[in-house]
Write a structure and sequence with these properties.
The protein has 504 residues and is an alpha/beta fold. Among the domains are: 1-82, Resolvase, N-terminal catalytic domain (Rossmann fold); 149-280, Alpha-Beta Complex (Hect, E3 ligase catalytic domain fold), CATH 3.90.1750; 352-425, no CATH class. The chain contains 16 helices and 17 strands. It has helices at 17-33, 55-64, 77-80, 84-96, 112-128, 130-145, 169-183, 188-197, 210-217, 264-280, 332-348, 351-367, 369-395, 401-425, 432-447, 452-459; strands at 3-10, 37-45, 71-74, 100-103, 158-161, 164-167, 226-228, 232-236, 241-245, 252-254, 296-297, 305-309, 318-322, 329-331, 460-465, 469-474, 498-503. Strands 2-1-3-4 form a 4-stranded parallel sheet, sandwiched between helices. Strands 11-15-16-17 form a 4-stranded mixed sheet. Strand 8 (232-236) and strand 9 (241-245) form a beta hairpin. Helix 4 crosses helix 14, helix 8 packs across helix 9 and helix 13 (369-395) runs antiparallel to helix 14. The longest helix has 27 residues, at 369-395. The radius of gyration is 26 Å and the shape is globular.
Length: 504
């Protein structure tokens, strides 16, 4: 389930504290309807939305950096900030932290075409940036052939010195304990509980959680083997997703390249035991690909996972998406067929018309940049002057708690302005020829049923199941970063989407 915080505000003596209570009531109802967990409330009383001096707002922005929640729920757009450009600044910062803003009483959904066009433009830009990614990959592969650290997280039990893995003896002891306890018959939950009882911490100095134990037990680095570019797919046992490697020729693998923490015998024994327990639980490892994996949610709010079953041993298998909470399910073939039909109808049956719409939309978005850039550059200059004044005051011996808070607020705002300017500086010009080539290439793959899973994720945001209907949100690929073309209100934090409801 998504975790959210509430932000509520009233701005003058013309509004009373009760107005915040009314906001909170509507927001809680919205959260209940959408299966969202509220973990905290932030309230600014008698503070204008046009000023950054909002104590609760700034505290919320600071907490967002810690990525402890997914959403900020606001009553209406004018409760977040009245300045649409400032709204874009703060939303750009929140997008960096993986946080979105939603409005309980103003679902911004008035331009379905905007969702389609915005999503396709983002995907198009990503497609043509792969040349850069390819060049980067060449360098990473060179590092991989030397068994060097290539970025990402450093596994528990190791440190990295000059790109080389070296054993962290204190953490390595914990890794050995995990393998030892698993081979003694303990499960993931029991192992994590026992580690926490002993006061052990994970690599981020946090308590262990049970679903991280499997990642440790399947990490071949601990047996001294280096692997890079492991493309993964998942299967589910109905309770959790377990990961498997894809094609072996896609992975750079070097044996005995790293200092080993456990022996190869212990590692192999562990892998055999994990397979044995999976079979004992009735999990079937199948090559059947679930096209909608990670996209389907049950009416109860839980994510539905793929599973297969057969009535008798040796009988043909049937494939489903099933809710691990309430147990409701739907045949995979039924829902996948409906989703593919919608994508074909909305995208690939009218490519020429779609291209013209995208070009018009892109031109409109680019034309809106100049006003926002002018505003942001003026703001950046003003904020810089204010920061210099505060630093001078502190250097001259003037100090107070409020001065420190103001300094922190301005630095946060300055960071957001720079981030937003960098986003606007990106070249968003769209070539009709390249766009046409890209869409026709996608259509060819769709017609040949090639790489369907990635194609589906390109166009589908979420699928919600109810007793009678399947509700599909599509053409939403990433948070929309920017100010609205409307002068009255900031844009939605999520690309405006089109929702399709089909009967089961």
């Amino acid at each position: 389930m998504l975790k959210a915080v509430i932000y509520a505000r009233y701005s003058s003596d013309m509004q009373r504290e009760e107005s915040i209570e009314a906001q909170l009531l509507d927001i809680r109802k919205y959260a209940d309807r959408n299966g969202i967990i509220i973990i905290k409330e932030y309230k600014d009383e008698a503070v204008s939305g046009q000023t950054e001096m909002r104590t609760a707002f700034q505290a919320m922005m600071t907490e967002a950096k810690r990525r402890t929640f997914d959403l900020i729920i606001v009553h209406k757009v004018d409760r977040f900030t009245r300045n649409r450009y400032d709204a874009a600044v703060y939303k750009s910062m929140l997008a960096k932290y993986g946080v979105r803003v939603v409005y309980a009483m103003q679902p911004i959904d008035d331009s379905p075409e905007g969702g389609l066009l915005e999503g396709i433009l983002e995907s198009f830009a990503e497609y043509y940036s792969k040349n850069l990614a390819t060049e980067v990959m060449k360098g990473l592969k060179q590092n991989a052939y030397k068994a060097q650290f290539n970025g990402g997280y450093v596994p528990l039990g190791y440190n990295v010195v000059d790109k080389q893995y070296v054993i962290n003896e204190k953490e390595a002891f914990v890794v050995k304990e995990i393998f030892h306890m698993y081979l003694k018959g303990y499960g993931y939950k029991r192992i994590s509980d026992m580690l926490n009882e002993k006061g052990y911490k994970n690599k981020k100095n946090n308590p262990f959680v049970y679903n991280s134990i499997a990642c440790i037990l399947t990490n071949e680095k601990y047996a001294g083997d280096y692997a890079f570019n492991k493309t993964r797919r998942t299967y589910s046992d109905g309770k959790r997703n377990l990961k498997l490697h894809k094609k072996a020729d896609e992975v750079i693998r070097i044996s005995d390249a790293l200092p080993a923490i456990i022996s190869k015998e212990v590692y192999e024994m562990t892998q055999k035991e994990m397979k044995r327990r999976a079979v004992f639980r009735g999990v079937t490892l199948t090559k059947r690909e679930y096209l909608l994996s990670g996209l389907v949610s049950c009416a109860c709010g839980r994510r539905m996972v793929g599973y297969s079953s057969a009535r008798t041993k040796g009988a043909p298998k049937h494939y489903y998406y099933r809710c691990p909470g309430c147990g409701c399910s739907i045949k995979a073939e039924i829902i996948e067929t409906k989703v593919l039909a919608i994508i074909r109808d909305q995208v690939f049956n009218s490519v020429d018309n779609l291209i013209e719409l995208i070009l018009e939309y892109a031109a409109k978005k680019n034309s809106e940049k100049s006003d926002e850039l002018k505003y942001l550059n003026n703001e950046l200059k003003t904020v810089g002057q204010q920061l210099n004044n505060i630093v001078d005051m502190i250097a001259n011996g003037v100090a107070s708690t409020q001065l420190g808070k103001k300094l922190q607020e301005l630095e946060t705002y300055q960071e957001g302005i720079k981030l937003r300017i960098a986003e606007l500086a990106q070249n968003n010009e769209v070539s009709k020829t390249k766009l046409e080539t890209w869409l026709l290439d996608l259509k060819a793959k769709f017609d040949e049923q090639e790489d369907l899973k990635n194609l589906v994720k390109l166009f589908i945001k979420q699928i919600r199941m109810s007793r009678d209907d399947i509700e599909i949100d599509f053409f939403v690929r990433a948070p929309y970063k920017g100010a609205s073309s409307s002068s009255a209100a900031p844009s939605a934090p999520v690309i405006p989407r089109k929702t399709s409801i089909v009967k089961k």
